[in-house]
Amino acid sequence: MIKAVMLDWAGTMVDYGCFAPLHVFVDVFARRGIEVTVEEARGPMGMLKRDHIQAMCRMERISALWESKFGSLPSEADVDALYADFEPMLFSTLHEYATPVPGAVELAARLREQEIKIGSTTGYTRPMMDIVCKSAAAQGYAPDSLVTPDEAAAGRPYPWMIYRNAELLGVYPMHHIVKAGDTVSDMLEGVNAGCWAVGVVLGSSELGMSEAEVEACEPEELDRRKAAVTERLTAAGAHYIAESIGELDRIIAVINERLARGERP
C-alpha cells in the first residue's frame, strides 16, 4: 500500500497557475535590458530558484541576447547578481501566493483518514517556505514534513529532498511513495527517487493559466492545452496524470492494486 505522498507546493497544492515567481524572473532580466518570454521563464519551473535563473541564462536565445548586450555569455557571477535581485523581489509578494488550490485541503484530509503521510518538496528555499507555510497553514493546509533544496545536497531533478522526507516520515521502500507535482522537474525528481510519479494539469505551471483564464477558455482550446501538458509530463516520466490534485487519492487506489500484484514503478 502507498504509505506517503510527496507533494509539490506552488502550482500543485497552492498558488494556482504558479504565478508567484513568474513575473519576478521576467523582471530581473528586464532590469538588465534582456526581454525574456513567459514561456522561457516557466521552462525550468520547480528547480531551486538560483538553478532556475542559471537554466534561463543557458537558454540559447537568452544567452545570445546577453552576449550581444554585454560582450560575453552569462557567468556564474551574473547568475549570482540576478539571484540577488530576485530574492528580495519575491519575498515582498510571496505571502500573497499561498492560497490552496481547489481540492487541496480536502485531499490532505482524505489522505490522513487513510493514514497516508504527507511530505513535501519545493523549488523555494527554507526562508521562502517559512512565508508560504505560515500563510497556507492559516488557510487549512500543512503537510507532515517539508524539505527545501537548500537543506539537501541539491534540488530537483535530484531525488535528495524526497529521500530526506522519507527519512523524516519513516517511510520506505520508495515504491510505497507517490510523488505529485505540476512540472517536468517534479516528474524527474519522482522517477529518480524510485517513486510513482503523478503529474497535475489544472493549476499547474505547465498549463500556466489562472482559474479565471481556465473558466473563460474555449473547451476545445483548453483540451488542446491540457493535452500538451499531459504529453510533456508523461515524457518526463509521469506514471499517471491527474487533471486536478483532488484526483490523487483515486489514483493512489489504482496504484495500490498494482502494488498488490507485485508491480513496481
TrEMBL record:
SUPFAM superfamilies: HAD-like. One of its GO terms (biological process) is DNA repair. It holds the Pfam family Hydrolase. CDD domains: HAD_PHN (cd02586). Coiled coil: none annotated. Its cofactor is Mg(2+). Its EC number is 3.11.1.1. GO terms for cellular component: cytosol. It catalyses: phosphonoacetaldehyde + H2O = acetaldehyde + phosphate + H(+). Binds 1 Mg(2+) ion per subunit. Belongs to the HAD-like hydrolase superfamily. PhnX family. Involved in phosphonate degradation. This is Phosphonoacetaldehyde hydrolase. The gene is phnX.
